[in-house]
Design a protein that fits this description.
Layout: E1 6-9, H1 12-23, E2 28-32, E3 35-45, E4 48-52, E5 63-69, E6 72-84, E7 87-99, E8 107-108, E9 118-124, H2 125-134, H3 136-148, E10 156-161, H4 169-177, E11 181-183, H5 199-205, H6 211-215, E12 220-228, E13 232-241, H7 247-265, E14 278-283, E15 287-292, H8 295-298, E16 306-313, E17 317-331, E18 334-344, H9 346-358
Parallel strand pairs: 3-17
Antiparallel strand pairs: 1-7, 2-3, 2-5, 3-4, 4-7, 5-6, 6-7, 8-14, 9-14, 9-16, 10-13, 11-12, 12-13, 14-15, 15-18, 16-17, 17-18
């Protein structure tokens, strides 16, 4: 099957063959409110799917099941119809098979003595957001303090923190890129250098969505991220002018952003990482998996959320790692969280690479 190809199956006889060969007796997972639950695929009979779902009082709703076979994933949308004996019964409109090769080989971690590999000091972007919202007086003080520290004259200044509003275009961009937004002049048609933001993207995703920029005749912008441990954005400093901004302006605002990022990251009233110790089950250069049984730990994870933690490796080495949560799976009494590595601190990256090479 070609990488971009998707095979759709709706014929009942073909579906019967598919479920018999790919689902029965295999690891099958049910999509459920951000957690993928491992279920027992009992049978496909008379156009219906029978599942044994090992969750007490499971809230049945329209969802999907999937399973992996080598480099292919079979995926079916299912609609609940009721129960028969102890099994949940679903109908399906069909199934899809698509090509989804694993990006890289994961190394399974040996649990033998001397091989303990865990993470701790974990905090996620949504926990930071909730903390900032609950400490509004402290945040307002910081906002005033930062704005007062900008000595250059700008026509518009804003200091934004996660939680100031639900949807913010700049914050979304900074969360993904973690790089400053720098638009020296919207009237310049071309992007000048690597430091500059694509003016077309800026106009589409920010400028045309904020009427006050045009109303105030603002033609340039710099927005630098405020980052927890210099890796996870939790706000930004925005400055605009009615005339072009320069590289020197960018340098000064970046330096200010770095200084406040470092000082605010030490504020225990705003940032309180979890002290839980969680076992690393497998890892690679681009990602890792962690496992735990405690339901209380699961609250720290949501699909697509950013999380930052310290990974404690053998030989008393460690690494501060920023990850994006790819998936959360519940299998029996065990949770497994798969994470894609977004960034590692410089010293920690050396330790992490050495550990991978030693396995």
């Amino acid at each position: 099957m070609k990488p971009q190809s998707v095979k759709h199956i709706t014929d009942r006889n073909s579906l019967s063959d598919l479920y018999s060969s790919l689902f029965t007796g295999r690891d099958v997972f049910l999509k459920s409110d951000g957690v993928n639950i491992k279920v027992n695929f009992i049978k496909f009979s008379n156009g219906r799917i029978y599942l044994d779902i090992p969750v007490e009082n499971y809230d049945v709703k329209r969802t999907a099941i999937y399973t992996r076979n080598m480099e292919e994933v079979a995926y079916s949308h299912i609609i609940p119809t009721g129960m028969e004996d102890k099994y949940y019964v679903f109908e399906t409109e069909g199934s899809q098979i698509f090509f989804a090769p694993r990006k890289e080989q994961r190394i399974q971690i040996d649990a033998a003595p001397g091989k303990k590999t865990v993470i701790s000091q974990l905090i996620s972007n949504f926990v930071i957001k909730e903390s900032l919202m609950q400490n509004q007086s402290r945040v307002d003080w910081l906002r005033h303090e930062i704005a007062s520290g900008i000595t250059e004259k700008y026509d518009y200044i804003k200091v934004f923190f996660l939680g100031d509003k639900n949807i913010d275009a700049r914050m979304s961009i900074l969360m993904d890129d973690r790089e400053s937004i720098f638009v020296p002049d919207i009237n310049s048609a071309k992007q000048g250098n690597d430091n500059e933001t694509d003016p077309a993207l800026y106009m589409q995703n920010i400028y045309h969505l904020e009427n006050e920029l045009a109303e105030k005749n603002l033609v340039s912008e710099i927005s630098v991220p405020l980052m927890y441990k210099m890796m996870m954005p939790f706000g930004y400093i925005q400055a605009n002018r009615r005339y072009p901004l320069t590289e020197e302006d960018l340098f000064k605002l970046k330096r200010l952003g770095l200084a406040y990022s470092e000082s605010i990251s030490r504020d225990n009233s705003l940032f309180s990482p979890s002290g839980d110790t969680i076992t690393i089950s497998d890892l690679s250069s681009g990602g890792l998996g962690i496992i735990f049984r405690e339901k209380s730990i699961a609250k720290h994870f949501r699909e697509d959320a950013l999380v930052i933690f310290t990974a404690y490796l053998p030989d008393s080495t460690h690494a501060s790692i920023l990850c994006r949560v790819s998936n959360i799976t519940l299998s029996g009494n065990w949770y497994r969280v798969g994470c894609r590595i977004e960034n590692i601190d410089s010293e920690g990256e050396t330790n992490y690479r050495k550990f991978l090479q030693s396995e």
